[in-house]
Amino acid sequence: MADFKKIILSETVFDYLKPTIFFMRLFGLAPFSYERVRKYYVIERSTKYTIYSFVLASILGSITILGVIYDATSDRSLRMKTQNQKYIVITDIGIVVWSVLLGVVISQYKLEQVLNVLRCIQKVSTVLKEPKNKLKKEKNVALTIGLSVYFILILIFGFDIYGWITRCKSAEERTRYFKYYSAYYILYLVVISQEISYCNFTYYVKNRIIVLNAALLKEIKREPDIFLHKRASSKGKIDPLVSPKLLIGTEGDVLENYILKSAKYSARNELTPLTIRNFMTAHAEIYNAVNSINACFGYSLLFILISCLLHLVITPFFLITGSQSNPLFTALQATWILVHFGRLLIIVEPTHRCLEENEKTNPLIVYLLSKVQDKEVKNEVSKA
């Protein structure tokens, strides 16, 4: 697969992808810039955003690590009262820090794959002639889901901060908590942004597969165009009243003409070589996009999935070993367990839906090609 260091997107497709691009750049996961040129956008690697990504991850990671160290070595620790709790908290927060650092570093080396996904989406949308209003509707769905996840997570952060602050015994301890752990919550947003980016890209690919399947199914169900044959008169001349390419519509109309005029007819399939090429191009670009998504997010998602599973072990342990007499603390840990399950669903559910839709494509292709009669079309298929 070729590397794409610079791509051009149409205004419509760029607007469709803009929410994902915005949040990826905001959290240091997409070190590229874009420039509008008439009705198109040129996207390429940006040194400025590359520096921004490393600086953001380094500052947030350093503040979080130092905060955990200070809290762990303090005589009045805020979150680590026992030795076991120290191990748990360090593991819990360390997983998030490493997830961010890994995601930011990988994003620098996998930028070409991200650009290739954007290019593939542009190509498929162009080939299949997707309407602008459909893309706008899909954009609103992706934006709504992303903003909802961020909003819910911020509410949970507020609940978490409130839960820990109520356990502080003085204003000085509350100040220390904000000082030590405020960067940690921002890092968690970066991790969630990685998952949302993967979810959105998978959503985009799934929608392209849906459009391709709809186009294939429409071609399969399309009734062949019916044409009258030339009919010779009794004197051996061609009857001028009957055009050799007179379209007479549906099979019912054909039957009526056949009975009343004794006209011969034939069905002509309009599955042209261009249509076949468009289907082949769309299918190839979708496959290309899937490979690029796997290459770009593979290692990061593997680490995030492992971290989710570890959190699902650590959080119940915290719940069991924590204060059983504090309903607020119990509710807080139960909420985090639901959050970790939700994070798994953000990754697993879109992937499942995409694979489920993809399974419908090959049978449609085989059925459509089985109807091909035209030699030129067959030759086009054989070249694939």
From TrEMBL:
InterPro entries: 7TM_chemorcpt (IPR013604). The keyword Cytoplasm does not apply. Keywords: Cell membrane, Membrane, Receptor, Transducer, Transmembrane, Transmembrane helix. Its main location: membrane. One of its GO terms (cellular component) is plasma membrane. It is a multi-pass membrane protein. The keyword Membrane applies. One of its GO terms (biological process) is signal transduction. It is found in: Cell membrane. It comes from the Eukaryota. The chain crosses the membrane at residues 49-69, 89-109, 141-165, 185-205, 301-322, 328-348. Belongs to the insect chemoreceptor superfamily. Gustatory receptor (GR) family. Gustatory receptor which mediates acceptance or avoidance behavior, depending on its substrates. This is Gustatory receptor. It comes from Cryptolaemus montrouzieri.
